[in-house]
Specification:
With 177 residues, the chain is an alpha/beta fold. 30% of the residues lie in helices and 29% in strands.
Length: 177
């Protein structure tokens, strides 16, 4: 795949996360808010958001990690032995507002799987979805509550989020086959 365009630079990602943190503070009650990042890149994004919210409001929000591997509807298509990274939610979510964080929203299937798994952890009060990039082309009726950037894409294009914690750099690019 070749890089077609840069969607967000390092500075733009930082600015976008600042804005998203402010939107969350403005629209959500922080007293019962917990963040859960979808592995892999949703986790560092959730941690960064929690840190930004803490800096702005002095509130420490719990951050969990969700591995949706066994909840995917395409599990048998992925591999005979899929790599499981493990879910880590060591706080109660029952009665809480869960802010589900992911890097890219595409078909909606990842979010559907995440909801299925979260329900195994308790009955949350509300579920909100925050994504860094919404690239459209949904297959399921999933709509994010907080969006960093909306990008119109075509089939055959891929939005790739690179984060320092995972990839050594912060950058969002559009790739073409």
């Amino acid at each position: 795949m070749k890089e077609k365009a840069v969607i967000l630079t390092e500075a733009e990602i930082a600015k976008t996360l600042e804005r998203l943190a402010s939107e969350v503070i403005e629209r959500e009650c922080l007293d019962d808010l917990v963040l859960v990042g979808i592995k892999t890149r949703g986790v560092p994004l959730a941690r960064r958001l929690a840190s930004l919210i803490s800096e702005k409001k002095g509130v420490e929000l719990p951050v969990g990690e969700l591995d949706i591997t066994f909840y995917r509807d395409d599990l048998t298509l992925l591999a005979e032995a899929p790599i499981v990274k493990g879910t880590k939610i060591d706080f109660p979510i029952s009665g809480k507002t869960v802010l589900l964080v992911d890097d890219v929203l595409y078909t909606g299937r990842t979010v559907r799987a995440a909801i299925d798994e979260l329900l195994d952890y308790g009955r949350f009060k509300a579920l909100r979805l925050l994504v860094l990039v919404d690239r459209g082309l949904r297959e399921l009726p999933i709509c994010p509550d907080f969006v960093g950037k909306r990008v119109e894409t075509r089939p055959g294009e891929v939005v790739e989020v690179r984060l320092k914690e995972v990839d050594g750099e912060d950058k969002v690019v559009l790739l073409e086959k």
